[in-house]
């Protein structure tokens, strides 16, 4: 048991570190894009990738998850049979989807939000979707074979080559926004070449109809949940495009991406949380542990939130060697960053609160709750964007994550009731509310006075102790390994 948990923790760390490094490396393209593209051009790129994220769910229709479900713990012959069936099915359906889009894309140019001058981007989008769909089953198989290091290496190579190609095509060859998608195509193609080793070992021309039926039944059930999750993450861009223009989408995208610092915190926590939860789920004090985890997560998360809120302007606008983190043309959207950070904080709360349905195996509730969050996201975007523009889009994402976390709280308490430290949690959100209100109330004063910003952060941290949310001896105990 302990050996398995140790292996799980090791694999999780490898997946987590590679994902975090990859996302941060990918984030470095954001400053680059803001200096070489206008806001309207960057907005088109952001919108294209929103549709790629959504269509990727359709291209795979849950087959990667189904393959993972049925191939794990099977003998090698059965794994090869399932591998071939899944790979061939995804291959042929991806061809069908791609041909359909290729011959009908002119009808959807306006819907996607691009002009005919950029219609070639649709072709590039289709190629990316096709290549990535072919990589899905091999990548899943690496996870089944417990080859975490190879999996992580290939993912990292994909992102690294993408970044390099972007620099070459844009900076040296002077390509326009098509360089972003061409770079992605080349990176995806190189990744697929690397995966040929895995494909050659497991693929044959075996096609099992019974396996196909099982995959379809299991996999398609994940499509609504996958779409709902993607809607929460990306639907604000297409709606923003429809209700405003590409210029506004570009402004929004660049500043939304600055929320990566909170997203990375939540990602690190999520990778550590799942194996920790498994290891402690049968302990007598497991509920008390989960309660403490939520409190400590919110304490640390709130400090990160307030620190980034008050420092985001100087971090973004201070010039080093004549260049700031993002081009000054995008600074006017920095005021949305605290709302984006708050949304990611509630996403972390959602992750913690999912403990109950995971322990009680009530995971069917996850797509329902996510679907509710997606619905809230769409409705609030339609209502708020016309009046508040990018701030309305940022609040819509926050509302969706808030609804999802609250929905997960209700489900958790119904199936696995936990006595959370409600008074401390209320105090944390009270302080967050006060400091965010002060920030927006005196926005112009704070962004022009770095000493005042640092003072506000220190006062917030001091308030955590004054309000007895955290005690000094608790920190000393954690350092000794005691919760």
Low-pLDDT runs: none
Using only C-alpha atoms, the radius of gyration works out to: 23 Å
Shape: globular
Range of strand content: under 5%
Task: Give the count of structural domains.
Answer: 2
Output the helix-strand order: HHHHHHHHHHHHHHHHHHHHHHHH
Proportion in helices = over 70%
In total, how many beta strands?
0
| Biggest pleated-sheet summary | none
Structural class call reads mainly alpha
- Terminal CA distance reads 23 Å
Mean pLDDT: 90
Task: Walk me through the structure.
With 483 residues, the chain is mainly alpha-helical. It folds into 2 domains: 63-221; 237-479, no CATH class. The protein contains 24 helices and no strands. It has helices at 2-27, 29-36, 39-60, 63-71, 76-104, 109-112, 120-144, 148-172, 178-194, 196-202, 209-220, 223-234, 236-243, 246-256, 260-280, 286-317, 337-353, 355-359, 365-388, 390-415, 422-441, 443-446, 450-466, 472-479. Helix 16 (286-317) packs antiparallel against helix 23 (450-466). The chain starts with a helix and ends with a helix.
């Amino acid at each position: 048991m302990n050996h398995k948990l140790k292996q799980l923790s090791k694999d999780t760390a490898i997946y987590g570190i590679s994902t975090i490094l990859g996302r941060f490396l990918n984030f470095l393209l954001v400053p680059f894009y803001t200096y070489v593209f206008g806001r309207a051009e960057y907005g088109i790129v952001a919108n294209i990738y929103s549709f790629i994220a959504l269509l990727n769910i359709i291209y795979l229709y849950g087959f990667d998850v189904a393959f993972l479900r049925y191939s794990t713990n099977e003998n090698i012959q059965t794994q090869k049979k399932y591998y071939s069936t899944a790979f061939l099915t995804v291959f042929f359906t991806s061809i069908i989807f791609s041909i359909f889009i290729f011959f009908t894309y002119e009808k959807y140019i306006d819907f996607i939000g691009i002009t005919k001058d950029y219609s070639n981007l649709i072709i590039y989008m289709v190629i990316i979707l096709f290549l990535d769909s072919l990589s899905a089953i091999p990548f899943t198989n690496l996870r089944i074979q417990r080859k975490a290091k190879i999996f992580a290496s290939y993912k990292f190579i994909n992102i690294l080559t993408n970044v390099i190609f972007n620099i070459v095509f844009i900076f040296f060859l002077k390509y326009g926004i098509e360089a972003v998608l061409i770079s992605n195509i080349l990176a995806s193609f190189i990744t697929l070449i690397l995966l040929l080793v895995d494909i050659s070992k497991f693929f044959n021309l075996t096609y099992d109809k019974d396996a196909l039926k099982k995959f379809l039944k299991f996999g398609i059930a994940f499509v609504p949940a996958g779409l709902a999750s993607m809607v929460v993450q990306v639907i604000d861009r297409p709606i923003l495009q429809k209700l405003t223009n590409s210029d506004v989408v570009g402004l929004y995208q660049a500043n939304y991406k600055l929320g990566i610092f909170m997203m990375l915190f939540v990602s690190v926590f999520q990778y550590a949380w799942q194996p920790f939860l498994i290891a402690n789920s049968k302990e007598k004090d497991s509920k008390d542990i989960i309660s403490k985890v939520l409190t400590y997560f919110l304490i640390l998360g709130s400090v990160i939130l307030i620190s980034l809120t008050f420092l985001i302007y100087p971090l973004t606008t201070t010039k080093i060697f004549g260049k700031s983190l993002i081009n000054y043309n995008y600074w006017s959207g920095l005021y949305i960053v605290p709302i984006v950070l708050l949304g990611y904080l509630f996403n972390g709360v959602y992750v913690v609160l999912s403990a109950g349905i995971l322990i009680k195996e009530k995971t069917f509730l996850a797509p329902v709750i996510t679907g509710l969050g997606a619905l809230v996201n769409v409705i609030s975007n339609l209502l708020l964007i016309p009046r508040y523009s990018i701030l309305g889009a940022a609040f819509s994402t926050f509302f969706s994550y808030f609804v999802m976390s609250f929905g997960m709280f209700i489900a958790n308490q119904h199936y696995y009731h936990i006595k959370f430290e409600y008074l401390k949690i209320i105090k944390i959100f009270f302080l967050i509310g006060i400091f965010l209100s002060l920030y927006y109330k005196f926005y112009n004063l704070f962004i022009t006075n770095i000493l005042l910003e640092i003072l506000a952060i220190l006062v917030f941290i001091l308030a955590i102790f004054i309000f007895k949310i955290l005690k000094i001896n608790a920190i000393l105990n954690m350092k000794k390994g005691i919760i």
